Amino acid sequence: MGSLNDIGVAAGINILSAVGFLLVFAVVRIQPINDRVYFPKWYLKGTRSSPRHIGNVLSKFVNADVSTYLRFLNWMPAALKMPEPELIEHAGLDSAVYVRIYLLGLKIFVPITVLAFAVLVPVNWTSATLGDDEEGLSYDQIDKLSISNLGPGSKRFWVHIGMAYVFTFWTFYVLYHEYKVITTMRLHFLANQNRRPDQFTVLVRNIPVDPDETVGEHVEHFFAVNHREHYLSHQVAYNANALASLVKKKKGLQNWLVYYENQHAKNPEKELTIKTGLWGLWGEKVDALQHYKTTIEELCKQEDEGRQKVISDPKAIMPAAFVSFNSQWGAAVCAQTQQTSNPTVWLTEWAPEPRDVYWPNLAIPFVELSIRRLIMAVALFFLTFFFMVPIALVQSVANLDDIERVLPFLKPIIERNGPRSVIQGFLPGIALKIFLIFLPTILMAMSKIEGHVSLSGLERKTASKYFLFIFVNVFLGSVVAGTAFQQLNSFIHQSTNKIPETIGESIPMKATFFITYIMVDGWAGIAAEVLRLKPLIMFHIKNTFLVRTEQDREQAMDPGSLEFGSTEPRIQLYFLLGLVYAVVTPIILPFIIVFFGLAYLVFRHQIINVYNQQYESGAQFWPDVHGRIVTALVISQILLIGLLSTQEADQSTVALLPLPVLAIWFHYVCKGRFEPAYIKFPLQAGSKRILLISSPYITADDIHIVSNVKRELRLMFAGGHGEGHAATGKRPDAEPERVPQGRIRAPRLPQR
Amino acid sequence: MGSLNDIGVAAGINILSAVGFLLVFAVVRIQPINDRVYFPKWYLKGTRSSPRHIGNVLSKFVNADVSTYLRFLNWMPAALKMPEPELIEHAGLDSAVYVRIYLLGLKIFVPITVLAFAVLVPVNWTSATLGDDEEGLSYDQIDKLSISNLGPGSKRFWVHIGMAYVFTFWTFYVLYHEYKVITTMRLHFLANQNRRPDQFTVLVRNIPVDPDETVGEHVEHFFAVNHREHYLSHQVAYNANALASLVKKKKGLQNWLVYYENQHAKNPEKELTIKTGLWGLWGEKVDALQHYKTTIEELCKQEDEGRQKVISDPKAIMPAAFVSFNSQWGAAVCAQTQQTSNPTVWLTEWAPEPRDVYWPNLAIPFVELSIRRLIMAVALFFLTFFFMVPIALVQSVANLDDIERVLPFLKPIIERNGPRSVIQGFLPGIALKIFLIFLPTILMAMSKIEGHVSLSGLERKTASKYFLFIFVNVFLGSVVAGTAFQQLNSFIHQSTNKIPETIGESIPMKATFFITYIMVDGWAGIAAEVLRLKPLIMFHIKNTFLVRTEQDREQAMDPGSLEFGSTEPRIQLYFLLGLVYAVVTPIILPFIIVFFGLAYLVFRHQIINVYNQQYESGAQFWPDVHGRIVTALVISQILLIGLLSTQEADQSTVALLPLPVLAIWFHYVCKGRFEPAYIKFPLQAGSKRILLISSPYITADDIHIVSNVKRELRLMFAGGHGEGHAATGKRPDAEPERVPQGRIRAPRLPQR
C-alpha cells in the first residue's frame, strides 16, 4: 500500500495534469476558430452565428484581445451563474437533473466527510495497534487513519458502527429529499409544457391482424369505440427503408447544389462542370448546376412515388401506431389501462417524445420480445463474467511468434528489438482498451435487441448493464484481484458468509489504489472532458478537408450529448466508493468531494454551452439513479459487516444486520411514494387539458419510417421534403393549430 | 432406508385407515341425524330443509333403508358428475378452480409417471452398482429403482438429464395451458356477472384531510370533478364499534324471543317467566315474552341513536370510501390510474366484493403500512428459522423436575411412573403440535397486520408465508435433518455451491420417508377430511346442549370453507415432492398420483355438499398457485444439479444449467401474458356496461363498521336492522334498482 508520500506524488501529477487541461481549455476556448467546438449549443439555438468578426483576418482565427486571457477562469463562475429554472429552459430537464447527481454527491459526502474527520479519524489514529515500532511491518500512515488500526476485538468498533448508522440515515434523508424535489420538478416541468404532443399521445403496439381491415382502419375503429369521447386521431408506423435511402441521396445532392450555387455566386464567369461517372472522375462532362437541379427534381418524383407506394403497400405497414387523444385525461386512461382481455395485444403505453422514439423496435411481437430478453440476460451474464475470454483469445492470436509463423515475411521487422517490445508490451493492453471503448456500444446494442421503444429507455437499460459491469469488473475486480470469472469461481466454492468477509477484508488495503483511480479517472478525466480534445481535432480536420457549405459546417460541429448510458454508471462508482470507504478509510472522502465538485462545474458548463440532447424524457432516469445509490449503500453495509466479522467483533456485526434490511425497506418506501410519478400520469393534474395542436405524430404528410439508416434522416423526412421542415420531429412547440374539439378527425391523406 | 417390505406394511396400514375413514363416512353420512353436518351447503342454499321425515321417530335419527347402505360409495361418482359450469354456478369460481389444482397435479404427474416407469426405472434397475452381493451393504430395492443405483460417473445419467428436460417441458406445457384455461374462465365468469357491484366500485384509501369539508364532501367533490361523466355515488367507511356491540346484543335477545315464542306456541297455557338478574338465576320474575319484546324495542331505539351519532361524529369517519361509477369503464379508469401527483393519497384500487372486505384495515396510513410490512417481513424470517426457540423454551419449562420444584404439592402425582412417562413422552411433542395447529392463525394475524384490505388477499398472503414455512421446515428439515436454524447456520458456513449438493445428495435417501409421509398426511389425512370428525362432534354437542331455535341450529352447522391460506401450501408440497423425485426416485410418483386423485374426489364432494365460501374472488389466487409450482420446479432442478455434481458427472451438470434459467423465463412469460387479467380489468370487455343496481356499498342506510367483532354481525347490520336483511352484503345479485344514468346521485341520507 502506498504511503502518504506516494499519494502526494500521485496527487501532484494528477493535479498538474488536471490544471494543465483546464489551462489549455481556458486558452483554446477563447480562440474564435474554436468557437464552434466550445459553444455549439448556442449555434444550434441560433443565438450565435459566427466567430467574432471585428478586426483583421488573423482575428478570425486567433484571439488577440489580452484582457480575455486575464479572465481565463471566467467560465467557472459563469457556469454556476445560470439559475436552475433558466437552465431547465435552456438545456432541458434531463440535463438539469443530470448535473444534480453531482450535487447530490456533494450533499451526501460533505457532511459525512466532516463527521468522519471529526470522529473516525481521531479514533483510528489514536489506536496504537499498527504502530511503526511493532514488528517492523510496513504499515503506513494511510492505514493508521483507517479502521485497520484498531486491531481485532477492539471496543472502538462501536464508534464505527454508530457512524455507519449515522451515515446511512443521512444518506436516506438526502436521497428522500432529492427524490421529492426532482419529482416536483418533473411534475412542474410536465405541467408547464402544455403543448407537448406526447402528453396527448399513446403508443399502441401489437395491433392484432384483422382480415377485413387495414391496420389503420382497425386502430380507428377500436379506439373510436372504446375511447369514444377522447379519441382524436392516429398515425400508423410505416416501414420505408427504400424511401429513406432516396431521401439520403437527395440530401447529399442538395448539399452539392448549394456548394455549386455558392461557387457560382462568387465567380459567375467560371463554368462549373462535373463528370457524371464514378466519383466524378470520368464520364460525360455536364454543367454542374443544371445537372444537380435535374437530378434532384428526378429524385423528388421518385420520392413521391415511393411515398405513395409505402402508404398503399400493406407490407410496409407496421402493427404499431401513435394514437392521439383530445385530452390528457383520455390519453392517461388509454395508456394506463389494459385494452382487451388478452394482455398481449393492443399494448398501450405513453408515447415517447417524437425525438425519443426508437423506430426499429416498434414492431416486435410479444413472444419474440420475451425470447430476446431471455437471450440478452444470458448474454449479459456471460459478458460480465467471461469478457476476458475472447480478449485473451485475441491477445494470444496477436502473439508475435504466431504472427511470424503465419506471415514469415514480417520476420525481419518483428525480430528487431524496438518494435518487438512495443508490440509485446502494448498489444494485450490495446485489445482490452479497445474492448472497453466499445463496451457502451455493445451494451447499447444489447439494449436495442431487448426491444425498448424509446432512446431514453435504451439509455437507462444500458446504464443498468454498465453499472453491473463496472461493479463486478472494476470494483470487485480491483478489490479481489483476478478476473470476474476467477472471482465467480472462487465465490461459488466459498462459504456464503465468507464472500463479504473476503471482500471486506481487502477493502482497507485497496484504499490507496482507489485514491489514485479517483485522481486519474475523476480529476484528470473530468478536466479532459471540458477540453473536448476529440471533437476539437475532428472539427478542424473536417473544416479543412470536407466542409463545403454552411450546412456541412453545422454537421461538423458534433456537440455531443450527455450519454447517460455510459457516464451515469461511472458516477455511481464514486458513490459506491464513497459509501464503502466512509467508515473504513475516511481519507478517501475528500478526493471524492473534489471529483463531485469539479464534475459539477464542468458538466454544468458543458450542458450550457456544448451538449445538445437528442431527446427530453423529463428526468425519467431518476428512479434508476436513486436505486443504484441505494444498491451501493447496501453493498457498503454488507462489506462492512464482512470486514467487522473478520475482526473478532461478533456482537458488533450483529448490530449492523438491521442496516441492509432498513436500506431495502427505504428503497420500497421511496418506490411507492415517488416512482409512480415517473411511470403514470396523475389524472388530476392536467385532467381536462385539451390538445390544441397538430402533433408531430399526426401531421398530415407524416410517414414514420422504420429503417436502419440514421435517425436524423428519418426525422427530416418525416417532416416534409427538405431541410427546412426537418424540425417537425424536433420542434414539438411548433405553431399551434386548432383542431375541432371532440370530433374525430380522419387522418388526412398525404398531400403533394 | 426402508425396504419395499417396510413400505408395503406402511402402505397397508394407511390404506386400511383411509378405507376405514371412507367406510365410516359412507355409513355416517346417510344417517338423517348427521344430515346437517354432511350437506350444510344445501341447507344454506335453501334447497334442503330437514332430514327425511318418512317413517317413525327412529327414522329421524337412524337410516333404516338397507338399499342406501348398498350404494354407500355412491358419493364418489356423484361428486364427479356435476359438470364444471354447474359447479361454478353452485359453489363459485374460487372453489371450482381450487379443485382444479388437484386435477392439474394429475395432468402433470400421470404422463410423467408413465414415462418415468417406462424409461428411468429400467435404466436404474439394470445398473448393477448397488448389487446385493457387493460389499454386503444394506441397499434395498427402493434404492435399486432410484438414481443412486447408477454409481458415480455413469454414462446413463444422460438419460436422466434428457428426462429432466422432457419433464420440464411437459410441466411448462400443462401449466401454460391451465393458466390460459383459468384466465378464460375468470374473464368469462366476470363478464357473466353483470350485476356484481364490485365491478363498478373502487375502494379509495388515504383520503387527505380537508379543513373545510367532511370526508364525504371531499370525496364527492374530488370525484365529481375528476371523473365527471362516470361518478355515481360513494359510501364512506365508519368506525362503529359501539354500535356493533349493541347489534350483537340485540341479535342474542331476538334469538331468545324466538325461543320463547316457540315455547308459547307449543304450550300456550304455561306461563313463561324469567329472572332479570345475572344469567337469569335471580332477580325479579317477569313475563319472558313481554320482557324480551320491550328490551328489544329499547335496543332498537338505542341503535338508531347510535347510528345517528356515528354518522354525525367526525371521529367515527374513516379516511376511506367506496366510490361507485355508472359504468365499468369509469370504475376501471379510476381503479387503474393515479389520481393526484402525490401517489400516497387518494389511493384507488378495485373494491373487493362486499363479503370480501376486511374492514379493520381500511384506514391504515401509507407510511404506517410500509413500516408494518417491514416488521412483518422480519418477523416472518424469525418465525421461519427460529420457531423452535420458543417451543424449546416451553418444553424446558414443561420439564417435570422443574414443575416439581415450583409446585411441590404435585410431587406425588408426578412421581408415579404412569403419568410421568406419558407427560415426558408427550409434552414436547404436544408443544410442537399446538404450535403447528396455531401456525396458520399466526400467519393470518401477520397478514392482517400487513394491512391487506380483502379477505382473499389475506388468504393469499398467508398461503405464501405458509409455503415458505413448509418448504424450509418440512421439506428441507426432513431432507437435511436438523432445525431450520441449524440448517441456516450450516448453510451460511458452507460453500454456496455445496448447498444444493448437500441437499441433493440426501434426496434419494429420503424417498422412503416421504412415501410414508404422503400416505399418512395425504391418503389418510384426506380420507379423514371427508369424515369431518370435528364438525360432526361439535354439531352433536351443540345440538344437544345449546340449540334452542332454528337459527341456532343453522349456526351450529359450521360448514367450514376451503381455507386457501392453509390448505393450498400443503398441496404445493406434493408438487414439490413430485417434481424433485420424478427424476431421482420415480417410485414415489404413484403415491402422489393416488393423493391427487383421492383429494380431487374428496374436495369436489366437499365443495358441492359442505363448504360455504365466505367470499368470491374469481380465482384471483391462480397466479400464486402457478408461481409456486414454477418455484418448486426451479428447486427440483437446482437439487438435481446438486445431486449430479456429487456423482462425478460434471458435463451432465452443465447440461442442466439452462433448465432453471428457462423456468424463470417461463414464469415471466406467463406473468406478462396472463397476470394482468387478475389485477386489471380490460377496458374493452364490459366497456360501457351501466350499473343498474344500488350496490351494497351504496345502500341508503348502509354504515360499514370498522370493528373487531365478528364479520357476520357487521354485514348483517350493514344490510338493515334484522336477520331478514342480512343478505344485502351477501347477495350482490339483489333486485336491480334503476339509477338515472349520467346524473350524479347525491348520497342519500340514512333514513329512519
TrEMBL record, chains A, B:
GO terms for molecular function: calcium-activated cation channel activity. Pfam families: PHM7_cyt (PF14703), RSN1_7TM (PF02714), RSN1_TM (PF13967). Residues 730-740 have a biased composition (Basic and acidic residues). The chain crosses the membrane at residues 6-28, 101-123, 157-176, 374-398, 426-445, 466-485, 573-603. It is found in: Membrane. Residues 372-644 form the CSC1/OSCA1-like 7TM region domain. It is a multi-pass membrane protein. Residues 7-178 form the CSC1/OSCA1-like N-terminal transmembrane domain. The lineage of its organism: Eukaryota, Viridiplantae, Streptophyta, Embryophyta, Tracheophyta. Residues 721-752 are annotated as: Disordered. Belongs to the CSC1 (TC 1.A.17) family. Coiled coil: none annotated. GO terms for cellular component: membrane. Signal peptide: none annotated. The keyword Transmembrane applies. Keywords: Ion channel, Ion transport, Membrane, Transmembrane, Transmembrane helix, Transport. Residues 199-361 form the CSC1/OSCA1-like cytosolic domain. This is Hyperosmolality-gated Ca2+ permeable channel 1.4.
